[in-house]
Amino acid sequence: MDRFPNAANVDFHSPLDLSKAAAAVLDAEGNISGWGASAQRLLGHSPEDVLGKPAGRLLAAAPGQRLSALCRTHKPRSTVLDLSCRDGRTLRAGVTFSPLEHLGVAATVVVAADLEALRGWEAQLALLQGLATESTVGLTIFDTDMRVVWGNVSTDLELAGIAQYIGRPASDLFPEGEFISRHHPPDEDQIMEHVMTTGEPIMGMHYRGRAPADPVREHVWSCSYHRLVDARGELLGLFEESLDITDRYRAQERLSLLVRAGKRIGASLDVRRTAAELADVAVPQLADEVLVDLPPAVIEGRQPPTGSAPGHGLLRMHGRTPEEFRTSPVSYPSSSPQAQSLGTGRLVVDASPPEAPGGEGSGASHSCLFVPLLTRNTVLGLATFRRSSNPDPFGPEEQTLAVELAERAAVGIDNARRYTSQHAAALVLQRSLLPQHLPEQSAVDVAYRYLPADSRVGVGGDWFDLIPLSGARVGLTVGDVVGHGMHAAATMGRLRATVRTLALLDLDPAELLTRLDGLVAQDSEPHPNDGLSDEALGVTCLYAIYNPVNGRCSWASAGHPPPIVADASGSVALSALAPGPPLGLGGLPYENVDLNLSSGSVVAFFTDGVVEDRRTDIDSGIDRLAHVLTWQRCPLEELCDRALSARPPGPQADDATLLLVRTRRLDADRVADLELPPDPAMVAHARTVAERQLEAWGLSDLSFTAELVVSELVTNSIRYATGPVMLRLIRDRSLLCEVSDNAHTAPHLRRARRDDEGGRGLFLVAQMSQRWGTRYTSSGKTIWAELAIP
Asked: N or C end: fewer C-beta atoms under 10 angstroms in the chain?
């Protein structure tokens, strides 16, 4: 389809052209002696109506002497006359009178045209003349061989004279220029060939180069190409329109650079990466190189130093990736522009800077900007913008842009510095709240993994613990506080400490969770203006006790996934008991689950993050973990790695904690049981049995101490119990002495007076043992004491 359907109406022939204008001939007396067909079309009068008659009859106003004077002129004259048309209209026309005296005939040729059409044609001529002489749009005409034919004044000024390029190919005009628009072939010859072949104009191509009239400064033009044809439609060549849009293009580039900087600078919360982001954004659009210098304190997350000499003790950032990150020391003399910028907190321009300290850069710079990294009235460091291959100096707009980029980078660096400080504090908190190592136990081997979902902070709401209990038993716990970060970690730390405290009271799992539930419910009561009233809601916990003497494991759950057990044969079992409610909600009671575990069984305690994510449900995750546990003969550390590597890839939405336990049984020869009737005479028998057992274990050095402890504990039990008394000796990492009876009253340690006959037994037990205590059972209580093995 023709892009210009009205182009045929555009006619650059003059309305006074003889092929178009009304023409007539007047004799010496002013009578009409000739009347052309064009005159009849313009005014409507036929030749019969006007031939031989005075021309004055065609005037709408009295002619006076004006018409006679025009007929007697000796040179062509033009005027404006009102002519009468045959239909009664008055036509204002432009009329030209040309004498024919040189032909020996006293006659005048009169040519007339509609004045409005004539004025329109004159405006078109003025437009063409303006495009040729005054327009800022460069116009260049090329022939069919793509050689220069003509250029207007704008083109002449850019080329420092168009005459020298007439007849030369288009490629000679800007030999080092290039098209930076990529929606058409970037080669100018291909573009011209396409326009001449297809007739389709190509418009709005951006071209970058250096004009011969201004070879120092780089310019950008918007170029359009149109085919040229003559009145018969034959190809004459093409013409190019070019408009210098350098300032507008650079303004758009600066705007796009600021938008890009807003998206990229400061997004990483890492000081070194932020410095690299500033360089990535500014190079090569604004500068050929960007250098960032920071004091060590800022890199380490501390406050920048105050009072130090500007330009001293700085570190230069290197590298774009964490693997490449490194620093090198740099300092500037007090008289240097760098020190001046740091000292005043203002931009400093150096049009001819020397080589950078330390040999940085690839050569001498044409221009440098030294911009302080300033935020909250504090100078964090220095950014240097250098140009080496680009000879253009930094203009005022580019200086403003550099300051804007430096301000954004300074905010990002300050945020990263503050984050680094908080991150270090969070890591300290993590190390203080979670066990750094689990104590070695005869009852179990353990391995664990803790992966917080918020890897940047490194702290979440999950916890785990292994708690040594009396009788060679071990307490195992894992829990989850909803949320991540410092608040969840603080809540987690309180709960872990509470669980450990309650566990050392030798409570069974259900009783421990019941007491913990009450404490969490109290903590979750709203407190005005603290902002943490919901902090403790959504807490789950599982607590288990394993006894290596009989292989019994008891556990209870407060809204937490039950453990997965893989026995020594590799078969995996899942608990069918539904967990109790999460902590702090109250309502339903907690129940104990008892399991008999063979030696070498593997028990997996875990949080939701190990088995659940946004893409798969928890049942699929449990099946995945259970499949990993079928390899239970592998080392526990390897099983931990297998379990976590089996999770779906990508960012995790929840903290992941995994505690793997491989159970052991104490050999029968390391446990000695003796049942005693409630007879005081049995105390001596108990001492004798204890002495023999210690001798069999090779612990004769402990006989005196152990006999004393056994004697006191058995004596107390026989005195207050109504049934048989059970004595148990366990040879573990220490010597364990336990006395069980059916009484529910516990003895209390007290300081006996001089005249008291009793009350010194437990005092002696406490002095002789590492630790001692009482735990309650379903049938009574057990008093125990641990003696260190020399």
From this structure: N
